[in-house]
Amino acid sequence: MNAWYFLCFLSAVAIFIAFANQYLLRLQTTIAITTGSVAMSVLLMVLVKFAGNDVAEYITQAIGGLNFNLLLLKGMLGFLLFAGALEIDLHLLRHQRWEITIMALGSTLLSTVLIGYGCYFVLDLLGYPLPLVYCMLFGALISPTDPIAVLAIIKKMNAPDRISVQVEGESLFNDGVGLVVFTTVFAVAFSGEAPTFGGVAELFLVDAVGGILFGAVLAAVAHWLICRSNDPSIELLITLCIPTAGYALANMLDISGPLAMVVAGIVIGNVTRGVGFSKHSQETLSHFWHTVDAFLNALLFLLIGLLLVVMPVTWAEVGLGLLMIPLVLAARFISVALPYVGFRKFRQYDAHSVKILTWGGLRGGLALAMAASIPEHAVKIEGVDFHTLVLMMTYVVVIFSIVVQGSTIAPMIQASIEAGREPIDPELLAAEEAVAKLSHSVSK
């Protein structure tokens, strides 16, 4: 069976799990799909190992034949980030631009360093002496957060906009920033040359700034074309060119495709949507990209769970992954709490903001794709392949964050809703009221 057919069947399985979840588990959809796919993985492993089932063996081989790194980093990620950025409200984003910028850049870098050093000391203590640069590589790939699962819960519970914007804005931007940091550390770790501050800074800036500028150019071209088109179908197809040809070109230019998609999505969603689309076309645009986003997320979270069948699972590596969970959470808490010490000097925030941003900072497919991109057999630690070790540790952290953190975030959000009745920053409140009035007038 070729890869395309296999992905088609996997998509159907993901949608079936989502359908069944409505009547059985009634969990948030991505959490249900991940949980179901992990259970399927365990069943396949049992059938292969103890029953020698040919069908299970065939499915396992098909899963192993998929290039998850290529599928996500070079394909699906562009669609997911563009679709997510389309829904960001620029009016609210502007009032929290400094918070989101500092957390997306500063908190991601701080988390990378904290996890890198923590991983270095933990592994050395347990008899896995690993050079610091490789530990930083793990810190870089596990620091970016995934907004998908927790945002669905936030929207379902009607959490305050200021919380939703913080989580969504930071997560979308730190995906791009995290990938740039990972690419930079990766180049230092495997280039074989001694790193210099100037070389690392140049690599980082070219990737990040280049991606942002390229995203603005893509948005400008798409805006011009959409405003001069009279065909709603052509307008929609133009937006489709951004995460396809635009994302591919960014990767070919060696600049940050994820940051380009976020910038382009925000511009199209907030500027072009209002002047280049009719009211009916705006609804079509939202429905189309919401459907694409939901479909690809269902497939992505199914693949995350199914990756277990091709993991070289050992109890030692699972144990190390479990030790990484508190380390990653502690680094996330510190990297979020420290900026809030400064934020609170200028504005009043919900008392539960740091808790939600910490516990709601889920890890997902991006972390696994980056871990999978590390070369196999390039580095050995006490006879253990570094690629295998990092992939297993990453997988344990990702599954814990999606299933455990994602399914227990609701009480914190409820507390945030109740705290929302308390006085908040007048400027931010005025912005939220203005957006609400604008949305009401547009709907009329």
UniProtKB/TrEMBL annotation:
<dbReference type="GO" id="GO:0015386">
    <property type="term" value="F:potassium:proton antiporter activity"/>
</dbReference>
<feature type="transmembrane region" description="Helical">
    <location>
        <begin position="203"/>
        <end position="226"/>
    </location>
</feature>
<feature type="transmembrane region" description="Helical">
    <location>
        <begin position="31"/>
        <end position="51"/>
    </location>
</feature>
<keyword id="KW-0050">Antiport</keyword>
<dbReference type="GO" id="GO:0098719">
    <property type="term" value="P:sodium ion import across plasma membrane"/>
</dbReference>
<feature type="transmembrane region" description="Helical">
    <location>
        <begin position="6"/>
        <end position="24"/>
    </location>
</feature>
<keyword id="KW-0406">Ion transport</keyword>
<keyword id="KW-0813">Transport</keyword>
<dbReference type="GO" id="GO:0005886">
    <property type="term" value="C:plasma membrane"/>
</dbReference>
<feature type="transmembrane region" description="Helical">
    <location>
        <begin position="129"/>
        <end position="151"/>
    </location>
</feature>
<keyword id="KW-0739">Sodium transport</keyword>
<feature type="transmembrane region" description="Helical">
    <location>
        <begin position="71"/>
        <end position="90"/>
    </location>
</feature>
<comment type="similarity">
    <text>Belongs to the monovalent cation:proton antiporter 1 (CPA1) transporter (TC 2.A.36) family.</text>
</comment>
<feature type="transmembrane region" description="Helical">
    <location>
        <begin position="386"/>
        <end position="404"/>
    </location>
</feature>
<keyword id="KW-0812">Transmembrane</keyword>
<feature type="transmembrane region" description="Helical">
    <location>
        <begin position="354"/>
        <end position="374"/>
    </location>
</feature>
<dbReference type="GO" id="GO:0015385">
    <property type="term" value="F:sodium:proton antiporter activity"/>
</dbReference>
<feature type="transmembrane region" description="Helical">
    <location>
        <begin position="321"/>
        <end position="342"/>
    </location>
</feature>
<keyword id="KW-1003">Cell membrane</keyword>
<feature type="transmembrane region" description="Helical">
    <location>
        <begin position="233"/>
        <end position="249"/>
    </location>
</feature>
<feature type="transmembrane region" description="Helical">
    <location>
        <begin position="255"/>
        <end position="273"/>
    </location>
</feature>
<keyword id="KW-1133">Transmembrane helix</keyword>
<dbReference type="Pfam" id="PF00999">
    <property type="entry name" value="Na_H_Exchanger"/>
</dbReference>
<keyword id="KW-0915">Sodium</keyword>
<feature type="transmembrane region" description="Helical">
    <location>
        <begin position="294"/>
        <end position="315"/>
    </location>
</feature>
<keyword id="KW-0472">Membrane</keyword>
<feature type="domain" description="Cation/H+ exchanger transmembrane">
    <location>
        <begin position="38"/>
        <end position="413"/>
    </location>
</feature>
<dbReference type="InterPro" id="IPR006153">
    <property type="entry name" value="Cation/H_exchanger_TM"/>
</dbReference>
<feature type="transmembrane region" description="Helical">
    <location>
        <begin position="102"/>
        <end position="123"/>
    </location>
</feature>
<protein>
    <submittedName>
        <fullName>Sodium:proton antiporter</fullName>
    </submittedName>
</protein>
<dbReference type="GO" id="GO:0051453">
    <property type="term" value="P:regulation of intracellular pH"/>
</dbReference>
<dbReference type="InterPro" id="IPR018422">
    <property type="entry name" value="Cation/H_exchanger_CPA1"/>
</dbReference>
